[in-house]
Amino acid sequence: MENKRNFKEVIADVEAFIFDVDGVMTDGKIIPIEGGDFIRCYYAKDGYALAYAVKHGCNVCVISGGFGDNLASRIKRLGIEHSYLGCMDKIAALHDFAAKTGVNLKNAIYMGDDIPDFEVMKRCGCPCCPKDAAPEIQEISLYVSPYAGGMGCGRDVIEQVLKAQGKWMADHKSFEW
Q: Among residues 41, 37, 43, 19, which one has the least CA distance to residue 29?
């Protein structure tokens, strides 16, 4: 999609958050463990923002080549209903998510960090990336977060969108996760 508007103009209309995992929700480091799974480190503030967005009715999706029981468990604990793990065709996953939810991709944020995200990011109206994303990804992003992958970039975009939509801190006293 061709992006003519700037990030601050687009975020008021955002209908969905779509995230890659390794390099976005994490710093990209993975530690293989026995049984074929991996250990990933997540940033608690990113997790809080993701769960907060879900709790406030936002469409949240994870599309990642990453896989494993630990990752699936993390996504489930955050309340994210739409996930495509071990995904080798991110464009098909994106279209499946849009079809299931009715989300207009023109009003979707996709946050990715590397070449496997390139084509799918171009199909969303608000491509974003962490500050340490590959140069090719930064070049096509409407917004480059000042935070690195796994260090608050997810929280950054979620918080900005929900503030613009009047949903951030709307009922923080009743929110538990």
A: 41
